[in-house]
């Protein structure tokens, strides 16, 4: 099986968003990330088994509610995300250690483990 690097833990996005992402990997955020059919199905079932709906984490529920029935595949496009990051100065996201708002890990050190608790958030004054 090919190695696919996930920047977002499965438990932050609802089932529907994962289905949308996996059905359009040719256009995955500008990269061609397409896989053979079998691998794609394996990954999709893993993602669905661990999607936000299966999580007890508060952030998972917040993302589900914020996405609702909209076709959103990027966490940073949700109202919940915008609300939680609105106090962060825009130039912080342009810092060379961050580069993009999609680089969640720059600030949430343990995000790939699904952890976005306050104690795992870096001090953003380092990026100013
Ligand atoms: C520039 C650093 C930075 C980046 C990049 C960033 N965040 Fe955050 N995030 C923060 C900070 C700081 C807070 C805490 C805001 C507060 O409590 O006022 C936060 C809060 C959150 C929260 C709320 C946590 C809670 O317990 O209420 C979630 C969820 C979250 N971020 C997810 C993400 C995701 C997903 C991404 C990537 C798409 C991301 N963040 C990118 C800095 C960042």
Automatic annotation (TrEMBL):
InterPro entries: Dihaem_cytochrome-c. It comes from the Bacteria. Pfam families: DHC. This is Cytochrome C.
